[in-house]
Design a protein that fits this description.
heterotrimer; A mainly alpha (about 425); B alpha/beta (about 180); C alpha+beta (about 450); B: about 180 residues; alpha/beta; Ubiquitin-like (UB roll); DNA polymerase, domain 1; two-stranded antiparallel sheet; 9 strands; C: about 450 residues; alpha+beta; Aldehyde Oxidoreductase, domain 4; 2 domains; six-stranded mixed sheet; four-stranded mixed sheet; about 20% strand; elongated
Chain lengths: ~425, ~180, ~450
């Protein structure tokens, strides 16, 4: 490259960076300048109908999952979220004037949900999923505001976010938003019916399902070209919930409605991070809304659910004898000699969605860690599954996983001892 | 229709049983009751929740843990060493009890059990706990919390737990080497 | 409140002193109660989203079913070993310990050997017929003419009935051995037969297992038993007792002496060196003489009507905190105040309080068995859905209890089993009302129900 050309490129790049910097600074100044501090505590007079609608929407949006900490006061924040960039603490959104959002107007609330900007003008981190809530209607945001503002105020101070530099610089979110904040998220299925539209709103916006189920890039952005194809944000991966993914594991619309409404289906029980989603959010959806969610996830023309794997033929047992013996030794006591589980107590292996995942991660994690006892709606409850990390070597666990996947998952027996070892804590 | 069997060899309180042919899907509680005539381990819920059935698995690294016999297959125990409630008291060559373990004696002294159904599980749990504390003592101020954590999974319907917990706490506090002073 | 001497709701006057007032007074002055407002203010301020409450419940509850019966046999060996046989069954309540201890009042120490759940009584045949709850007075009078007949044979065992009802027959049997065996043996050893009419068995005292009277030489039980056997005195007694809110009484001639006892059946065994004439009277397999009652006074059938009852009073204070986010109710501590007469074995009473309160906590907060299709009738419910209280649910380290001293050492032990399960349920519901100003009327108070009440 000639010196003149290099110089020209240098000039162009510098110019672009300068302009981007100026634009960013302009946005930043605009936000910060319009940011408020102090001010009167808001008094919100909303009708009971609006408050009730706001409560329903808050449940659909699952605000409590982050804004109510375990053993914490309702909506008073404090939940730590360990991200790859440090720890972010959810905030107090009760109407306390000093520790919560008691001075926020409906407009302030809207800006937080829609733009990811706080009342004081500072950026929110996308741990608060404004990247999904962006699509919320103004009326819905106002209803949620009305509901939240009549909660009991809690005097619980917010904890400072503990992010590593440079992520601790909130200003950086402006650039991030420019690249990754979109007005709407792409559809993960094909459809146009009213139920499908409603389902898209419930899933992409309120339910913000993509925030867990969509893979993320290096700077934590959702990879929208792979919407809902699954991602391991935490130890247990959120699986593929595209129509093809769901169908491959035998999910039908009815099963999805049961699962989201009660946490239990023939395909298994909700566990790990999905359990609170059921308990705090989806179990409160109306039957019609549950149906819309199922319609969106499977599309207006749902692919046929893959049939249950046949009863494991003797060849599978013979090829996986070590794993089969481990099954009899450690699993059959609860999951049944035939893999049928125990009604209302233990999930079946036959038809279990986790066994039918191509990625063995969740199965291995469940085998190593176990799954805690959990309550479900309608006085249902699943007993605890113990962890077997101290009772299975890497080779034994791999053999057992392969037996389970071959016998009941229709999957290849390709789990290696190294894969198990990589997942041990 | 025939039941597939597998050979089982298991050592119970130092005594080796087997190899014996046992149906491959048989749970250990049934082997204890039906094959080895060791009926001290109780079958309660049959689902691994009440812990009346736990036996002590003695591992090669000299640690021990409670294993629920009602949901763990006999196949798991092949080649392993366990202790059941029958093996906790000290016996002479004729099999007569010559001394109860400190936990058993404490349960008697403190009226810790009533109907006695859950008691083998509590004895085994306390025994495993005390052996663990011998390896890793806890501060005296943490003994009550340690006891509660170790026994929480065991269900009792008669006693309300208090005298069980107090007896185990008192054994721990009275036995040298199980606690330390500093936090 | 039903006080002593007052009629109950059915128009009858319960027996004995009603001590609910004493329980209430203790609760009223307990720091959990007196300090509850201040503690709530402090706790709620320090724990945003959690709400503190204290509640109290009390019950005065009848024990027994109005047709309690049992057989008890007490026998002394020549070296003073006490053997007790009883129809009562040990179901884990410690009835065997209690009945062994009950022998100490008249024999100086607990029984050495016990036979519980005895169903065959060749040494004291008793006959029964009809329904003791429903028969007419005329019918009972007619049947009572048979010296073997009693309105009921033997009660099933529960925790409530052993301390009072079973102890009664145990003690009657032991008392007969004392009055007709050990007492005359003692008088002989002391050389005090001449003064016998002026000296009474009730004046004697057992001190450290030896009998003494007005400063005379203490006599060990083994020595008295040896004397009784050598002199052919009464060394064993089997009694049958029946209670319909009063004890059946009957008159017998025991070894030549008239005796009116609170039992309706009696047989006695004489010492090994009794005279041939006496031995000839002992016709049962274990050498007992079955005595025919000379007269009997059975409790009137009218007692069935008004449930006069014996009552035990219990009160419980519960201190709790309601979590508004989860709906869970955490029991911080509880304190139970019980009056149960004279305790036979205090550790058993304490253990029953602990177990009973745990059951009450389960019913108040955790255990639910829905009716119809969704419930356990479908055969699939286990402890994952039917939630039993665990150690962490019962304030296992913090709970306390206070048993009021008996009014005198002659007060009998009262039944106190399921009764301790009840007031804590009310105390918890009242405590929740104090905490969140909502009174629940359906149990259990589950987290979902709390959340619904709070929203």
């Amino acid at each position: 490259m000639t010196v003149r050309r290099a110089g020209r490129w240098a000039f162009i790049i510098t110019a672009v960076v300068l302009v981007a910097g100026l634009v960013t600074a302009a946005f930043a100044m605009r936000n910060l300048l319009s940011g408020k501090s102090g001010g009167a505590a808001q008094i919100v007079n909303a009708s009971p109908e609006v408050v009730a609608r706001g409560k329903y929407l808050a449940e659909a949006a699952d605000c409590a999952a982050c804004h109510t900490a375990p053993n914490g006061a309702p909506f008073a924040g404090g939940l730590p979220m360990a991200t790859g960039f440090g720890t972010i603490y959810a905030t107090n959104i009760t109407p306390d004037p000093d520790d919560g959002i008691g001075r926020w107007s409906a407009e302030d609330f809207w800006r937080a949900l829609h733009d990811g900007v706080r009342r004081d003008g500072r950026q929110l981190y996308p741990a608060m999923p404004y990247t999904s809530y962006r699509g919320i209607t103004r009326a819905d945001a106002d209803a949620i505001y009305a509901y939240v503002m009549q909660l009991r105020p809690m005097k619980v101070a917010n904890r400072k976010t503990e992010l590593n530099f440079p992520f601790s610089v909130r200003l950086g979110m402006l650039g991030w938003n420019l690249l990754f904040l979109h007005d709407s998220l792409p559809a993960a299925s094909a459809g146009s019916s009213p139920a499908w539209q409603r389902g898209r709103y419930l899933v992409n916006v309120l339910g913000h399902c993509g925030e867990c189920h969509t893979p993320r890039g290096l700077v934590g952005n959702m990879e929208l070209s792979h919407a809902l194809t699954g991602f391991a944000l935490g130890r247990v991966a959120a699986p593929d919930i595209t129509p093809a993914g769901l169908a491959s594991r035998g999910w039908t619309a009815a099963a999805l409605r049961n699962f989201l409404g009660s946490g239990l289906a023939r395909q298994g029980s909700a566990f790990s991070d999905m359990h609170p989603v059921i308990m705090l959010s989806t179990r409160n959806l109306t039957a019609e809304d549950l149906s819309s969610v199922a319609t969106y996830l499977l599309g207006d023309s749902p692919p046929p659910g893959a049939p249950l794997p046949a009863i494991p033929p003797p060849e599978i047992a013979a090829a996986n004898d070590a794993g089969r013996i481990s099954y009899l030794a450690l699993c059959a006591g609860c999951h049944g000699l035939e893999g049928n589980g125990v009604p209302n107590t233990v999930v079946a292996m036959r038809g279990n969605s986790t066994l039918r995942l191509a990625d063995p991660r969740n199965l291995i994690v469940a085998m190593l860690d176990g799954i805690g006892a959990e309550n479900f709606p309608h006085r249902q409850s699943m007993q605890a599954m113990p962890g077997f990390s101290d009772k299975l070597s890497d080779g034994e666990a791999a053999a057992l996983a392969n037996y389970l996947r071959a016998a009941w998952g229709g999957q290849k027996g390709d789990v290696t001892p190294a894969a198990v070892r990589a997942l041990r804590r | 229709m025939s039941l597939a069997t597998r050979p089982l060899t298991v050592t119970v309180k130092g005594r080796r049983h087997g190899p014996m042919d046992v149906p491959e899907g048989m749970m250990m509680i049934d082997v204890l009751h039906e094959v080895l005539d060791l009926t001290g381990s109780r079958l309660g819920c049959g689902q691994g929740m009440c812990h009346a059935c736990v036996v002590i698995w003695d591992r090669d690294d000299h640690t021990s843990e409670e294993v629920p016999a009602c949901i763990t297959g006999a196949a798991f125990f092949d080649g392993k060493r366990i202790r059941t409630i029958e093996g906790i008291a000290e016996r002479n060559d004729k099999g007569e009890i010559v001394a109860l373990s400190p936990v058993q004696q404490a349960f008697l002294d403190q009226f810790s059990f009533q109907c006695g159904y859950c008691t083998p599980g509590f004895v085994n749990a306390a025994t495993v706990l005390i052996e663990r504390l011998r390896r890793a003592p806890v501060p005296r101020g943490q003994v009550e919390a340690t006891v509660a954590a170790a026994l929480e999974k065991h269900i009792c319907r008669c006693t309300g737990y208090v005298r069980y917990y107090q007896a185990v706490r008192d054994v721990i506090l009275a036995t040298p080497g199980l606690t330390r002073d500093t936090a | 409140m039903c006080s002593s001497g007052m009629k109950n709701a059915l128009g009858a006057i319960p027996h004995g002193i009603q001590r609910a007032e004493a329980v209430l007074e203790k609760a009223r002055t307990h720091p959990l109660w007196t300090g509850r407002a201040a503690r709530k203010q402090a706790y709620d301020a320090a724990h945003p989203g959690k709400y503190y409450g204290v509640g109290f419940g009390v019950i005065q509850r009848r024990f027994g079913n109005g047709a309690e019966a049992s057989l008890a046999k007490v026998e002394l060996s020549p070296d003073g070993r006490i053997t007790l046989s009883h129809t009562g069954t040990e179901i884990g309540t410690g009835a065997s310990s209690g009945q062994a201890v009950a022998c100490a009042r008249w024999l100086g120490r607990p029984a050495d050997a016990l036979d519980m759940a005895v169903t065959e009584w060749p040494d004291l045949p008793v006959e029964t017929s009809g329904d003791p709850h429903a028969m007419s007075q005329a019918e009972q009078d007619r049947l009572a003419g048979n010296p073997r007949w009693s309105p009921a044979y033997a009660s099933a065992s529960s925790a409530s009935n052993s301390s009072y009802y079973f102890s009664h027959t145990t003690r009657e049997a032991a008392r007969i051995v004392f009055v007709h065996g050990l007492w005359p043996a003692a008088l002989e050893i002391w050389g005090a037969q001449v003064q016998a009419p002026a000296l009474r068995p009730d004046d004697a005292r057992w001190i450290d297992g030896s009998l003494t009277l007005e400063g005379r030489e203490p006599l060990a039980l083994s020595r008295l038993a040896a004397q009784a056997h050598a002199r052919g005195l009464v060394v064993g007694a089997a009694v049958h007792g029946f209670n319909r809110w009063q004890w059946a009484q009957a008159e017998f001639i025991v070894d030549g002496a008239s005796a009116r006892i609170a039992a309706d059946g009696l047989s006695v065994r004489y010492g090994d060196r009794a005279t041939a004439a006496k031995q000839a009277l002992a016709t049962t397999p274990n050498r007992y003489q079955v005595l025919d009652r000379r007269s009997v006074s059975l409790p009137p059938t009218v007692n069935n009507n008004a449930m006069v009852g014996y009552n035990t009073a219990v009160g419980t204070l519960a201190e709790l905190a309601v979590d508004a986010a989860s709906g869970k109710v955490a029991l911080l501590t509880h304190h139970t105040i019980l009056e149960c007469g004279d305790m036979l074995v205090p550790q058993l009473v304490s253990g029953q309080i602990q177990g009973g309160t745990a059951s009450g906590i389960g019913l108040a907060l955790h255990e639910e068995l829905p009716l119809y299709e969704d419930g356990p009738g479908d055969g699939t419910w286990n402890f994952n859905r039917y939630r039993l209280p665990r150690g962490s649910d019962v304030a296992v380290w913090a709970q306390t209890a206070d048993v009021l001293p008996p009014l005198s050492d002659s007060e009998p032990p009262k039944g106190m089993a399921e009764v301790v399960m009840i007031p804590i349920i009310a105390a918890i519901v009242n405590g929740i009302a104090h905490a969140i100003d909502h009174r629940f009327r359906t149990l259990p108070v589950t987290p979902d129900r709390v959340l619904a009440a709070l929203s």
